[in-house]
Write a structure and sequence with these properties.
This protein has 491 residues and is an alpha/beta fold. The chain has helices at 2-6, 42-58, 66-82, 84-95, 99-120, 165-178, 193-205, 219-227, 240-250, 275-287, 307-319, 339-354, 388-391, 407-415, 430-439, 473-478, and strands spanning 9-12, 15-18, 22-26, 33-38, 126-135, 141-152, 155-159, 182-186, 212-214, 233-237, 256-260, 265-269, 297-303, 358-361, 378-381, 398-404, 419-420, 423-426, 446-447, 463-464, 467-468, 481-489. It has two domains: 2-261 and 468-488, 3-Layer(aba) Sandwich (Aldehyde Dehydrogenase, Chain A, domain 1), CATH 3.40.605; 265-456, Aldehyde Dehydrogenase, Chain A, domain 2, CATH 3.40.309.10. Helices cover 39% and strands 23% of the residues.
């Protein structure tokens, strides 16, 4: 991986800028050092913001015709495709994702989304308003009309987490740049190289200087970015606690903020459900990427008449999960990102036991894996919806089964949570499942598994402590614009 050898620098203003601090980046599957990553300092943050501000206020990018930006971003994505094996290998090494997750969910789907965002950026930025007559103060009638114009919002700060870094890096920078914004991207300190590699792509295709800037660092760098008055919009994916802090930091300068935060998403299994299909989706709800996904279905609200059968199926399926180093293509679940994440998972297992939940499977570190941050896929039965394990986001491979007796009870349980990002209903009565989906207070619902993990056309986001604003689709594109109304007389 060439970037691990020669990129101890940040990408600012179209150039590589050296730093005085370097930090080891670990492979979570082996605990080996992948490489030394640059750590941004206040001077780098200032330079990146100055570059982005200059590029937006005085550079060509916001003033280009949409088709010219589309052509440049298509070249950007084409260049990524040419290096797809390098990106996929890096996703496996940095995040601990399995080969399948890396290739399809972490790389393939975000590339599909990115190309769709570039494509729909040609939508009319100016929309006519209806012509109408209004009374005037002279006692007559005025004929008037107007247009709604969408302008790029300005300088965007994109802050991304460690779990799906390539996915979220593209998901934020591509729509922002497509409508004419300039961007400062700050990746997680755990997964910086996937972001820095995008700097190489930007140079290769000739993005104008300052349109994309990439700075690394920790909390101090993040706070400088979220408080600086040169920033017009912050888009952040991460925990609800950090999201709340970012909202507070941005308030004095009245920035726009898009927050895609945590989840404790509920999967309702009705008595007439295809239990095999439900259990398969339930298994993915806490084992995909070791449970490190904000929209994963970790609360399984199962009708009591089929709950035992569901639990038995899930127990059998969990036994078939192959845990290990994702460098092995046969592995179906890799490690957690760091020891702190594994310890958090272990703590929640003990909390669940103490509150009376029944451990069905897992609850321990796997035998024979002495290096790497592994933990067995774990699920509990006899969980109450009021238990902490049912209410708080673990971000580890833990699922819970909660029994219910009526549709109304299931809906109330699903909605009785601080989060609202995703959800699901499994039933052979699809009409009833749809009616229930309409009553769930969440950003998205899958009926019988849905039509795919994420549609390129569908906006994605949450309610309550899962955040606000939307990503992807036309709504996600328009989040990076301001609306301006221009009115005129008809005569």
């Amino acid at each position: 991986m060439a970037i691990l050898k020669d990129k101890a620098a940040l990408f600012i203003g179209g150039e590589w800028v050296a730093t005085s601090r370097l930090e080891d980046v670990l492979n979570p599957a082996t605990e080996e050092v992948l490489g030394e990553a640059p750590v941004g300092e206040p001077s780098h943050v200032d330079a990146a913001l100055a570059s982005a501000r200059k590029a937006f206020d005085h550079g060509p990018w916001p003033r280009l015709a949409s088709d010219a930006r589309q052509a440049k971003l298509t070249a950007f994505l084409d260049a990524i495709e040419r290096r797809s094996p390098e990106f996929i290998d890096l996703i496996v090494a940095e995040t601990g994702a399995t080969q399948m997750i890396a290739r399809y969910l972490q790389y393939g789907i975000p590339m599909q989304h990115a190309r769709h965002m570039v494509e729909i950026a040609s939508r009319p930025a100016i929309t006519p308003l209806p012509v109408e007559t209004t009374p005037n103060m002279q006692g007559g009638t005025t004929l008037g009309g107007g247009v709604m114009a969408r302008d790029p919002v300005g300088v965007v700060v994109a802050i991304t987490p460690y779990n799906f870094p390539f996915f979220l890096n593209l998901g934020k920078i591509i729509p922002a740049m497509a409508v004419g914004c300039t961007v400062v991207l700050k990746p997680s300190p755990y997964t910086p190289f996937e972001a820095l590699l995008l700097g190489e792509i930007a140079r290769e295709v000739g993005l104008p200087e300052g349109v994309l800037n990439i700075v690394t660092g920790g909390k101090d760098v993040g706070e400088m970015l979220t408080t600086d008055k040169r920033v017009d919009l912050i888009t952040f994916t991460g925990s609800d606690v950090v999201g709340a802090a970012i909202q507070a930091q941005s308030a004095p300068t009245l920035k726009r903020v898009l927050l895609e935060l945590g989840g404790k998403s509920a999967m309702i299994v009705r008595p007439d459900a295809d239990l095999g299909l439900a259990a398969m989706n339930g298994l993915g709800g806490f084992t995909i990427h070791s449970g490190q996904g904000c929209a994963l279905l970790t609360r399984h609200i199962v009708h009591n008449s089929v709950r035992k059968q569901y639990v038995d199926m899930l127990r059998t399926m969990v036994a078939g999960v192959k845990i290990g180093n994702p460098a092995d293509a046969a592995v179906t679940m890799g490690p957690l990102i760091r020891e702190v994440a594994r310890k958090r998972t272990e703590d929640y297992v003990e909390i669940a036991k103490a509150q009376g939940a029944t451990l069905i499977s897992g609850g321990r570190r796997p035998d024979g894996l002495l290096r790497g941050f592994y933990y067995e896929p774990t699920f509990f039965d006899d969980v109450r919806n009021t238990d902490r394990i049912a209410r708080e986001e673990v971000f580890g491979p833990i699922g819970v089964v909660i029994g219910y007796d009526s549709d109304e009870e299931a809906i109330d349980m699903a909605n009785d949570n601080d989060f609202g990002l995703s959800g699901a209903v499994f039933s052979q009565d699809v009409g009833r499942a749809y009616e229930m989906a309409l009553q769930l207070r969440t950003g998205g619902v899958l009926i019988n598994g849905g039509g795919g993990r994420m549609s390129s056309h569908a906006p994605f986001g949450g309610v309550k402590r899962s955040g606000y604003g939307r990503e992807y689709g036309l709504d996600g594109l328009n989040e990076f614009t301001n609306m301006k109304t221009i009115s005129f007389r008809g005569g």
